[in-house]
Amino acid sequence: MNLNELHERLTQLSDSERAYQAGFFFDGWEALPKVKIDGREVYRLQDSHNTPPSGHGESLSSTDNLTRLLAQERFAIKRNSRFNPVPEHIHSYVELNYVYAGQCPQVVDGTPVLLKENQVLLIDTDCPHSIGILEEGDIMLSLLIPKGFLRDNLFLRFSQGSVLSDFFINAINVQTDHNHFLLFHAEKDRRIALFFQELLCEYLDPSVNSEDILMYLFSLIMAELINVYESDLTQEETFSTSPIVGILRYIEQNFATCTQASVAEQFHISQNYVSTLLKKHTGKTYIQTVQAQKLKYAASLLKNTDRPITEIAGEAGYENVSFFYKKFQQQFGCSPGDYRERR
Prior knowledge:
Structural class: alpha+beta
Distance between the termini: 35 Å
Oligomer: single chain
Radius of gyration: 23 Å
């Protein structure tokens, strides 16, 4: 499938959309149970039938069984129906909404959100949300993701890369838990559009290695969303005068040789303030932060190379190999050798 074919597939009207456009109103939601949230009744999609009714949207692939995919801890993709509003509802999976074209008005946990083209909205489990009427040029795709899948297969994987990625993933989790949703301002990000296009093409027209390709593309989307979130976060007023992101990046790049004094000098702040910032935003002291980055780097080398453990310890900044073994055991619950065997 090429991009022109993808565009034609996503923009063509389905039979149900033609009916909605002609004035038919979908009332299938009335068969679903309701729960009270903040004094108002919202629809609940039941776990036994944990996919939206047809009035909410349609699976992109006629061979898809969304319920089966979600039960297997796999993500599924649907295109949201146009000309038909979606009432306030909740469900037990995470929803990742992406606007392919146009825009999409939503109300998420009582907050109006106008999702623009190429923006991404992460909605947490059991978060009440509704969708306004989409016009013909408004195309929104929703990735339905079991929360365990998102946590175990993606966020944990990225958090093992560096203290900086760990910081952003934690910030995403905290903000999503607190606000129940998170908007990624990716409208000018070229990679998000590219990765979603490739994901959709592969989903609609699977290749021989489709399962692996879909997983890698999904991982690329999540990795790029972390980059987008970094840009969003560093532009916020609360971070505009705080060098925490720069400090973490500096430690990530210079962990083997940097000292608390060199970090303080680099950012023109006191050594005590270095620790204060790190403790406030990461929960770790300076020494704990550097140790974490050293061990993440060593773990990556153990997984991806066959270099001697003593050599890896030295490159990670440990002159005392015994001390490296001790810290590695504390962090990962196994020796470096055992960790390598598990790769």
